[in-house]
Amino acid sequence: MITFRKLISLPALSLIMALPYAAKADLVVLQYHHVADSTPPATSTSLSLFEAQMKMISDLGLDVVSLGPATREALSGDAPQTNQVAITFDDAYESVYNAAAPILDQKQMPYTIFVNTDAVGGPGYMDWAELKELSSNDWVTIANHSIGHGHLARRSGEAEADWHKRTNRSLDVAQKMLEKQLGATAQLFAYPYGEYDEALEQKVTERDWLGFGQQSGAIGHYSHGTRLPRFPMANAYGQLSSLKDKLLSKAFPIDASRLPDGVVSDNPPSLTLKLEAPLSASRLTCFASGLGRINFSASSDTVTIQAPKALNARRFRYNCTHPAGNGSFYWLSQQWLNLDAPED
Ligand SMILES: [Zn+2]
Question: Which of 4, 144, 305, 344 has a CA-to-CA distance to 151 between 20 and 30 Å?
Fold first, then answer.
């Protein structure tokens, strides 16, 4: 594909750099678990909502694309001028095989299923024959979601050698099982519960994989390959009233590799952002999980965001948006992981 960027000659570069960021388009990844009406509400999208979401994507004229190549393209800054959408399902639930896959397969619409391999064939989960059948379609990608869906960030008090052994096994045995059962396997990993720390990110990097979390936001040139955002699409989060803003959102123009990995040391944690044009503190809006909108302090180009009180959940987020032109928003979600809170 020939992009605008490749068509220009070098002397025009300064002109291009002065263009508003809004000219860039990004990749928006949707994250599903169950697509059904009878499964646990926190992880379920009703079939009628799923169908309405697919219709909105189509009505907005957005292409649904394959996760791996589109992510690498977005990270390189070579994304096309219109946002693209990738669809992902975690845990390989039976409802995805029964309800969502037939809709997507009929349109040959790309999607990725992240599989925790020990669960395959268990009650409520797809079996290997079903995964093999889906993966025989060119538009379907099956990828790694660990062996046993454990919490993979290093636990307080866990010896480093024990952690290496536990996580290496969880990553590598799952990948080998996918290869054995399904053939070639994608270089993609979804962190169980969206939980990661820097050491786990390092393991993803060493394997040349991309690592996907469960914090919201779009993927673009500013994103980081081992902390890639996805928008959760369960009923509580995937309603049509907010979906358009998500589908048209853009990666927050701050280098995501310089943000914290989110492991909480002080609670409430503090997030400092250095804003550069076109960002301004006066147009920034931030929210904390369960607390709604929160204030932040600003001093020239630096803002410091901190919830007004400690948060008890194991995982919580600060989400910030900023207008990006043409009615779209830059979207930042900083996930925090409180390792002292019980594992779920
Ligand atoms: Zn999962």
Answer: 305
User: Would you state the pLDDT for residue 24?
Assistant: 63
Domain 25-253 falls in which CATH fold? TIM Barrel (3.20.20)
Longest CA span, the chain: 61
Say how many Å lie between the CA of residue 123 and the centre of ligand 1. Answer: 15
In tens, the pLDDT along 23-57 reads: 467 999 999 999 999 999 999 999 999 999 999 99
Interval between CA 275 and ligand 1 midpoint (Å): 34
Gap between the Cα atoms of 48 and 51, Å rounded: 5
Average pLDDT, the chain: 92
Decide if 88 contacts 133 (C-beta within 8 A): no
CA 112: distance to chain centroid?
12
Is the pLDDT score of 320 beyond 60? yes
CA of 173 to the centre of ligand 1 (A): 17
261: number of Cβ within 10 Å? 16
Q: Are 183 and 131 in contact (CB under 8 A)?
A: no
Domain ranges in the chain are: 25-253, 270-337
Residues by chain with Cβ below 5 Å of ion ligand 1: 90-91
- Give the integer Cα–Cα distance in Å for 53 and 290: 25
Of 240, 265, 120, 97, nearest to 180 (Cα)? 120
Helix (H) or strand (E) holding 304: strand 302-306
pLDDT digit string, tens, across residues 259-280:
999 999 999 999 999 999 889 9
Structure tokens at 110: 């790309």
pTM of structure = 0.92
